[in-house]
Amino acid sequence: MEPTIRVAIADDHEIVLNGIKGIILGFGGFSIDFVASNGKELFNKLSAAETLPDVVVMDISMPVWDGYETIDAIKKKWPEMKVLVLTMHKHEFAIIKMFRGGANGYLLKNSPPSELQRALRSINDTGLYFSEVASSSFYHRLHHSNIMPSLSDKEIKLLKYCYTDLTYHDIGEKMGITERSVAGFRTSLFEKLGVNSRAGLVVCAIQMGFVPIE
């Protein structure tokens, strides 16, 4: 029998908070250590806990401390803490900013409960989950074979720059190439890695060890 995965949740909407709690408990094999209504309350409860949860589930838009402030504080005190961001924010730069802050997974609130279950188990077992990459050929290769795509030096450099908050135009200037060339290398990376967004490239960069989870 697999050990129970212990979860803490932070969301400022009580109905949503209770809904997430009920869904997770309904999976079986999970327990809820505690819930919090904002990032500061979550941090304080983690600080007072005798045993830390296996995975923290939290939103980005929260009062007192938002998700960005909260993950920064959590990762500074507990670098190994696993965090799943569960939010309605789907802008790529929100996703990239949370991964740069140390998030282990990112999931939209309109995802089916089955995907939440997969995300929690994946983060607990492997340390990373992103819905787009989870179903891609890249994710399958990463976890089921030793065959990795061959990337050129410029593709690797672009992959690293995708992890920053630079625009594609700015990245082109840094690389000394045109924005059109950047688009060409990006398309090549999409095809080789099996993703279709910059956020997906960021997760691939983390998975392949080109950038650390800070």
Structure description:
The protein has 214 residues and is an alpha/beta fold. It folds into two domains: 5-135, Rossmann fold (3-Layer(aba) Sandwich), CATH 3.40.50; 143-207, Arc Repressor Mutant, subunit A. Helices cover 53% and strands 14% of the residues. A six-stranded parallel sheet has the order 2-1-3-4-5-6, with helices on both faces. α2 packs parallel to α3, α4 (92-101) packs parallel to α11 and α8 (153-161) packs across α10.
Q: Which architecture name of the largest domain does CATH use?
A: 3-Layer(aba) Sandwich
- Spell out the helices and strands N to C: EHEHEHEHEHEHHHHHH
The average pLDDT score comes to 89
- Helix proportion of residues, in percent? 40-55%
As for the CATH topology of the largest domain, it is Rossmann fold
CATH superfamily of the largest domain: Response regulator
Distance between the termini: 33 Å
For the sheet with most strands, the description reads: 6 strands, parallel
CATH class of the largest domain: Alpha Beta
Q: Runs with pLDDT <50, length 5+?
A: none
Q: Write out the strand line-up for the largest beta sheet, numbering strands in chain order.
A: 2-1-3-4-5-6
Brief descriptors of the model:
6-stranded parallel sheet; alpha/beta; 214 residues; 14% strand; Rossmann fold; single chain; Arc Repressor Mutant, subunit A
Give the SSE layout:
Layout: E1 5-10, H1 14-27, E2 30-36, H2 39-48, E3 55-58, H3 67-77, E4 82-87, H4 92-101, E5 105-108, H5 113-126, E6 129-130, H6 131-134, H7 137-144, H8 153-161, H9 168-175, H10 179-193, H11 198-207
Parallel strand pairs: 1-2, 1-3, 3-4, 4-5, 5-6
